[in-house]
Amino acid sequence: MKRATIYSIAKECGVSASTVSRAFSRPEVVNPDVRELIHAKAQELGYRPNRAARGLASGRTGTIGLLVHDITNPFCPPLVRAVQRAADEAEVSVLLVDAHESSAAELRLIKQLKGQVDGLVIASPRSSSALSGAAEGLPTVVVNRRMRGFPSVVCDNTTALLETGRHLEELGHRKVALMCGPSTSWAARQRAATVRAWAQGTRVTLVELGSFTASFEGGREAARALLGAGATAAFAFDDLMACGVMGGLVEAGVEVPGGCSVVGCDDVLLARAVTPQLTTITAPVDQLGRAAVDALGRRIAGEHVRDVRLEGTLTLRGSTGRPA
Amino acid sequence: MKRATIYSIAKECGVSASTVSRAFSRPEVVNPDVRELIHAKAQELGYRPNRAARGLASGRTGTIGLLVHDITNPFCPPLVRAVQRAADEAEVSVLLVDAHESSAAELRLIKQLKGQVDGLVIASPRSSSALSGAAEGLPTVVVNRRMRGFPSVVCDNTTALLETGRHLEELGHRKVALMCGPSTSWAARQRAATVRAWAQGTRVTLVELGSFTASFEGGREAARALLGAGATAAFAFDDLMACGVMGGLVEAGVEVPGGCSVVGCDDVLLARAVTPQLTTITAPVDQLGRAAVDALGRRIAGEHVRDVRLEGTLTLRGSTGRPA
DNA sequence: TTGAAAGCGCTAACAC
DNA sequence: GTGTTAGCGCTTTCAA
Q: Is residue A318 part of a domain?
């Protein structure tokens, strides 16, 4: 008993294979009665179109690629899930590739993906002009950064960061540290610029430290730098770094938020798993993923798509408070 | 300028298309000189075999599916990465599907994957006999649990748990809590059974609590239960739960490890990101992933494969110490 | 609205 | 060792 094909269905229904094909790919052009009949038979026979055949004939694979720079970064999994779900609803599959933090791997993987997918979502925070070259000719959308030549879907934390700054000022902080992330990271540059701009118009003195790697270890390093700085609050580049900072402070005998307030960014799972829980900026990950898939769908269809900007929102938790 | 095909290469090289095909799929059977020539031309023309065509003709897709129950569980991303890398080396692609914790979705996704992949790796901790039905006919390997009818690759924590128990006993603990995970989880049952067996032969009294969900919140709930139990140490089902327990204890004014020691399981990123860092059992994730891909490869090739059992190892950190 | 027919690019007998 | 010849299952003109 072989798998059902359009031919087996055609024979059973007494129509031609092309009609069966149309009944699935462009149902509106076939006679409703015939269409019903075909669909019923297909159901009965457990027919599933052969994607390879479809791909070969049509040139489309029904699959999109999702390239992530580092799947172990806690920001990633929820994004992957969001992309997946959106793709699933659009009836396309997702080929996930993790570059395990290697830019060289990214290039290789993109080339490899070419011809295997209809389009590509890139979630890689680092700048690399080579990336855009590699993805040339493949409909592509980038997430959480901007990149020349490709539409992007980003989380804009400007408003939320300003709000965070105001919040710290109101709490009475007058000396605040900014612990910068990697200068190659688009998000890190954005966030740093926003915090700097905020500090300008206030009574707050900003102390810039770093840059540090966006990791737990980077945070611990940052904590050491923070200890001598005399700041009573600190912006960490992201939650991972923020958790490292908290850990480092606590070990050095500085209480959070009593001795120093800490704010993160992204609101990853970790932010609620540490004690005290982290005040941070929540990224609309589900919407980011959905928007990326939507945009990519349009790009694949040949439409022109505009950049999408979604707002992060401040989430107050236990890691911020009045200075001692 | 269209993409190069075996035909364009064949013409350029003055050989037949089949020879070109062979030069790639079974290089050893073609004359070395001709092979070289073909490979060189292919390189020059930027030839990439068309996977759809290959799939259609050969019946193989060169893709495996990876079904995960919940990609946001911190255990998952490293496993996904490991599977990816192993697959990459074997020149197969990975179609990742996340069931977002829904068993119904799992079934649907497996069916959907069928015919789209050559084989399937299932990383889903929950019992569901329906799963095995859905995957029928598709070469399948399950990771981190056993499942009737499929070869499995599991992390065995027996030795490490016994060692952990001994460690606690040596530290002077005489009343230890076991906070059980979901009874539907294969790993949870295994771990609980091991801890029970350990306690039998010791001076230690075991207090069983739970079950609780394998989440941070589940851990906080567990902490509340733990407070009244009079235990000086606790086995949490996994790191996530352990972190919740620690958070709950600290909030209730109980110090870790001073007031109560806590041990987790898996050694996810989180375990090093909390303060104190978590004593836990480190799972050999990379090897799990690699073994799964290897085993699946054999299954696809029609070989019989045996279950693989890899050992977890105890990693001592700051969350365990002498009872007060 | 439907059918016939020609591929899509590759693999896999089979014959040479 | 190499070429010839059929397909794999589907889409897509083109005519009817």
A: no
Positions on chain C within 7 A of a protein C-beta? 1-5, 7-13
Domain contains B274: yes
Tell me which residue range forms the domain holding B248.
156-283
Among B52, B97, B244, beta carbon nearest to A84: B97
Residue at minimal CA–C1' distance from C2? A19
Q: Tell me the β-bridge partners of B262.
A: B234
Q: Is B51 within the bounds of a domain?
A: yes
CATH code of residue B47: 1.10.260.40
Å between CA of B58 and C1' of C13: 13
Provide residues 28-47 of B with CB closer than 7 Å to any strand C atom. Answer: 47
If asked whether residues A116 and A192 sit together in one domain, one would say no
pTM: 0.95
Q: For position A131, what pLDDT does the model report?
A: 86
Q: Which amino acid is at A146?
A: R
Whether the CB of B76 is below 8 Å from some CB of chain A: the reply is yes
CB B103 within 8 A of CB A119: no
Instruction: Report angle CA A67, A73, A76 to the nearest 5 degrees.
Output: 50
Contacts of B246 in chain A (CB under 8 A): 275
Q: Are residues B94 and B39 in the same domain?
A: no
- Contacts A251 to B, Cβ<8 Å: 275
Nearest to A80 among B55, B71, B274 (CB): B71
Nearest CA to the C1' of C7 belongs to which residue? A57
Give the integer Cα–Cα distance in Å for A75 and A269.
Answer: 8
In which order are the strands placed within the sheet that holds B175-179? B205-209, B175-179, B233-235, B261-263
User: Measuring CA to CA, which residue among A50, A112, A132, A121 is closest to residue A84?
Assistant: A121
pLDDT tens, position by position, for chain A (324 residues)? 678 999 999 999 999 999 999 999 999 999 999 999 999 999 999 999 999 999 999 999 999 999 999 999 999 999 999 999 999 999 999 999 999 999 999 999 999 998 899 999 999 988 677 888 889 889 999 999 999 889 999 999 999 999 999 999 999 999 999 999 999 999 999 999 999 999 998 999 999 998 999 999 999 999 999 998 999 999 999 999 999 999 999 999 999 999 999 999 999 999 998 999 999 999 999 999 999 999 999 999 999 999 999 999 999 999 999 998
pLDDT in tens, B261-317: 999 999 999 999 899 999 999 999 999 999 999 999 999 999 999 999 999 999 999
* Residue B171: CB less than 7 A from any atom in strand C: no
DSSP state at residue B219: H
Contact state of B274 with A274 under an 8 Å Cβ cutoff: yes
Answer whether A100 sits within 8 Å of B80, measured CB to CB. Answer: no
pLDDT, position B245 = 97
Amino acid at site A47: Y
Closest nucleotide relative to residue A16's CA, C1' based: C3
Beta bridge partners of A176: A206, A233
Specify whether B241 is located in the same domain as B259: yes
Protein residues with beta carbon less than 7 Å from any atom of strand D: A 2-3, 5-7, 17-18, 21-22, 24-25, 47, 49-50, 53-54, 56-58; B 14-19, 22, 29-31, 34-35, 53, 56-57
Å between CA of B18 and C1' of C13 = 12
Contacts of A18 (CB under 8 A, 6+ apart): none
By C-alpha distance, the chain A residue nearest B100 is A81
Q: Nearest CA to CA, how far is B116 from chain A (Å)?
A: 7
Domains: count for chain A:
3
B315: enclosing H helix or E strand = strand B313-315
